[in-house]
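The passage that follows is intended for readers who have already worked through the single-chain material. We present the inputs for a multi-component assembly, then the predicted structure in tokenized form, and finally a short commentary. You are encouraged to pause after the input and sketch how you expect the pieces to fit together before reading on.
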Amino acid sequence: MPVEPRIVDQSPAPAQAAPARHVVKLRSADGSDCSFGQTAGLPLLHGMVAAGRSAIPVGCRGGGCGICRVRVLAGAYASLPMSRSRISAADEAVGIVLACRIVPQEDMTVEAYPLRRDGMATKGKNAACATTTPPDDKGER
Amino acid sequence: MAIQGVLRLGEVCVRVLDIDSARRHYGDYLGLLETLREQDGTTYYKAWDEHDCHSVVIRPSDQAGIEHVAFKVLDEATLDELDARLQDYGVPTRAIAAGTYPRSGRRVEFTLPTGHTCQLYAIKEQVGNGMSASNPGTVPDDDVIRGMRIVRLDHCLLGGPDVAGARDLFLNVLGFNLTEELQDHESRAALASFVTCSNKPHDIAFVMQPEEARLHHISFLLESVNDLYHAADRMGKYDIPIDFGPNRHGITRGATVYFFDPSGNRNEVFTGGYVYYPDNPTLIWDTSKFGNALFSQGNQVVPSFLEVVS
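Having made your guess, compare it with the prediction:
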């Protein structure tokens, strides 16, 4: 008869409260939803990676490449500098930001909002005529 | 004297979103040696075994990416000759007076078919590599080789739609040779072209990207695979985001780690490869062996490596 594993928790009681965690709800580009606990003080993308999620593509993690572009639907956040070639001032004013450059201050809801990027990943097919345009901004997707 | 004309990629100017974190990255973590700092924050670095006073420039900006690349040419006569050849080829050039760029002679500037700003220059002040030119010994003083132990700036990979146009300009006008090319296996379109002006597998390369004037990476030479692993250890220690590696490229046969500066500009540390001569055959890879061409230990196609540029 197999022995049932016994779960033993010998970890000491925390000396102080664990860092506050905000709940982030995330809709990926393919429309699937997930949520995770975000450690306070981390950029949203870093929190997603730490939680073992992959709903948003991870690129440079420094605000330069734009691959983690999202739209904030709810929740307050602090911003770090992000490249103006990926996020215009007008984008930023309406909550279109890079997930690697925003630090949630409370529970948040965001959706992936990618730039269209057809580079070598498409093995060159149509790459020369690809354009970089945001998805249609009108209506709910 | 066999290497004439264009000598090497002598300078890259990278735009950074935050100068303090960029200085920490390029100065403290990479271990480049700071040689000059300007009022606006622009900071100049050299790698230890370079003799010219700087090869890497970081400039504060609201956009990441590459501001310009610059090649050092043999002498002033070569600069005039290449200027004329560019104009004959139909490429407008702009004259930049000596001293416009610090410690630099005059420059000839033009725009590449991929949208990047490129410059040529013959003169830049030399400060040496920390060892005398007379009975130099073999190693400089302590704290000259530091950080990731980078020997010199090696090459860069630039992204844009017109890879073939950029390749042809370097081959037909600037006297480079085509060492390797990655082609679409159906259309045979050039997806990435690697060109050299020296014995290196590449001094600059171009990769297909839908947008013009993108930076894929700037690359730094290391002495050994041991140093490559040491560099990767430092990336872990200092939480520097790694894109991919350590691994070895099929193309160029160089051992590599790709990582990002704090503004999202990709860097590479690189060692190995082969010695190129102008009578070598051009090596052609295609997308039927895409993974083998890119990262030959595992033969992986890494999406972020293809899609992420600044």
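Commentary: Chain B has a mean pLDDT of 97. Chain B has six helices and 17 strands. How closely did your sketch match?
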